[in-house]
Amino acid sequence: MVLTKEYRICMPITAEEYRVGQLYMIARHSLEQSGDGEGVEVVENKECEDPEHGKGQFTEKRIHLSSRLPYWVQAIIPKIFYVTEKAWNYYPFTITDYTCSFIPRFHIEIKTKYENNNGCTENCLNLTPEQLAERLVDHIDIAYDDLSPKHYKEEEDPRFFQSKKTLRGPLIEGWRANYTPIMCSYKLVNASFEVFGLQTKVEDFIQSCIREVLLLGHRQAFAWIDEWIEMSLEDVRKYEAKLQSQTNSILANQVGGGDSPGPNNVVKSGNSTPESPKTPKSPAKKGYFSWF
User: Fold this and answer.
1) How far apart are CA 197 and CA 5, in angstroms?
2) Strands (E), 149-270
3) How far does CA 116 lie from the centroid of its chain?
């Protein structure tokens, strides 16, 4: 059975502010994580439209990460491989799919919705009774949940950080009960790796990785608030495009060859955009960085 979790991540900002903050954080985080042939390569980034969700933004990325996986995973994959991420952002609702051509039975689907509350909506993503019965809810506290020591930075710790521009923070224990402003990111994650003997171990590993990235990314988004809080959506889109070009340049110089786009080629030719997955879908039919 596919492992399904719903992560709820609260932030001391509004859902409208988060729209800019998440774009800034993902772009910067992708650049900082790129090097030594690893990182996030942007293949396509353009507007899209869906009959149900309206206008949005479609992105396709290749996440090069083989050397960052545990040894038991590296043993079953090629030395050079990537995961393909396709994301449809119809803010405040998004859909993200992850696949790997080398492992056809590997599939992750993430559906996200953002609301101005503290995670109290019990069925934010309109799940069916069957999906609700299978779902495990995990509340992530950006200030007080344990973060891997290798990712910890005191200046990014919400327990000590205070924004100079908004005066938000530090976050005291129990902050989610009465903090204003506050918003919540509701993320339903279906992780599928249907390989006999490895399914449970790999699916558990995938979910633990996703939780760590969500915790780290949202801590950083708050700690970097003074850098993005005054940006408009147009400002952050320009910033995003600039950093995507830098990220692609780094990967093109270090990976090289193949069918990867050149340093400045971040958009495929043609106008076709893959259709966004329809909702709801059964987790049984759905098999990492725009997880935010």
Assistant:
1) 21
2) 183-193
3) 19
Between the two ends of the chain, the Cα-to-Cα distance in Å is 25
The sign one gets for the Cα dihedral 171, 177, 182, 185 is: positive
Place of tokens 């774009």: 23
The full DSSP string for 84-135 is EEEEEEETTEEEEEEE-TTSTTEEEEEEEEEESSSS--TTTT---HHHHHH-
Strands (E), the chain: 3-11, 39-50, 54-64, 82-90, 93-99, 106-115, 136-140, 183-193
Q: Which of 108, 72, 66 is nearest to 87 (CA)?
A: 108
Burial readout 159-182 (b: 16 or more C-beta within 10 A, e: otherwise): eebebeeeebbebeeebbeebeeb
**H-only helix segments in 135-180:** none
**0.70 exceeded by the pTM?**
yes
Spatial contact of 48 and 55, defined as CB atoms under 8 Å apart: yes
pLDDT tens, position by position, 171-191 = 999 999 999 999 999 999 998
- CA distances, 243 to each of 26, 50, 221, 226 (Å): 10, 27, 16, 18
Q: Of 22, 17, 187, 183, which is closest to residue 115 (Cα–Cα)?
A: 183
Determine if the peptide bond prior to 181 is cis (ω within 30°).
yes
Dig out the tokens for 266 from the structure: 């971040």
Please give the structure tokens belonging to residue 228.
């993005």
d(CA 57, CA 41): 17
Q: What does the chain come to in residues?
A: 292
pLDDT in tens, 228-244: 999 999 999 999 999 98
Beta strands 136-140 and 93-99: pairing type?
A: unpaired
